[in-house]
Amino acid sequence: MSPRLIVLDDAAAIARHVAAMFAGLLTDRPNAVLGLATGGTPVPIYQALIARHRAGEISFRDAASFNLDEYVGLPRTHPASFAYFMATTLFDHVDITPSRTHIPDGMATDAEAESARYEAAIAKAGGIDLQLLGIGANGHVGFNEPGSAFASRTRKVTLTASTRAANRRFFAGGEVPEQALTMGIGTILEARALVLVATGAGKAEAIARMLQAPPSPDCPASALQLHPDATVVCDREAARLLDGPA
Ligand code: PGA
Q: Could you confirm whether 67 is annotated as catalytic?
């Protein structure tokens, strides 16, 4: 089962497309469980969702959300924490109920207990309806770095040097944490639908590997080949190493 591939002109077109997927879900199922992601690529998608909310087209009032990951050791108030990112980029601008937004607690003293709590919260919510994913240049999804087992669950992981370097831009000169809590590949594959977004030439190799190499933990995103309802939405730059008609 191959992921559906949609190649669009630019980040704005990708944002419109993916925002329409989430808007359609919220319209069909106002109490949907949304899987959310951080990073640069999702920002225009969240802006498009905020615009639709302001236009009165969608409400998050009865929805719930689960984010993929969080840095270990950063409080929610730290400007580079994913909790802070989600609040300032999306949650503060829509009508979502804060107690129904979930992000792993990077300050938890017992990472194993926090990971188990997170898995249980996803299960209690009935599972994730649509999970948004970015992709690292090394093929990571969430913070599942190369080598992550496809059966992996939410857990504490160590970030690669390349991931820490890529994310340094969010830290204003501060050190990027070495560890994070992340949903596992197995957790992500249980979402009923997945949509992975990628823009720019820096993601081209990862997109080609995830779609055209045999599924392998060497490229965690290639696990999406095993999902019955996965969509990849990318721009021409990110699609440029794919063989055949794009
Ligand atoms: P980016 O991050 O959107 O900032 O490129 C994607 C990721 O690392 O998953």
A: no
Structure tokens at 237: 């730059």
pTM: 0.97
Q: Is 57 a catalytic residue?
A: no
Q: Is the CB of 41 under 6 A from ligand 1?
A: yes
Q: How far, in Å, CA of 182 to CA of 189, rounded?
A: 13
169-191 pLDDT, tens per residue? 999 988 999 999 999 999 999 99
Determine contact, residues 66/34, Cβ cutoff 8 Å. Answer: yes
1 HSE (CA, 13 A, CB side): 8
Give which of 46, 68, 235 is closest to 141, Cα–Cα.
68
Q: What is the DSSP letter of 63?
A: -
State the pLDDT confidence band at 246, using cuts at 50, 70 and 90.
very low
Whether 186 is in the pocket of ligand 1, judged by its Cβ within 6 Å, is no
Cα of 210 vs centre of ligand 1, distance in Å, is: 15
Which of 67, 69, 78, 129 does the annotation list as catalytic?
69
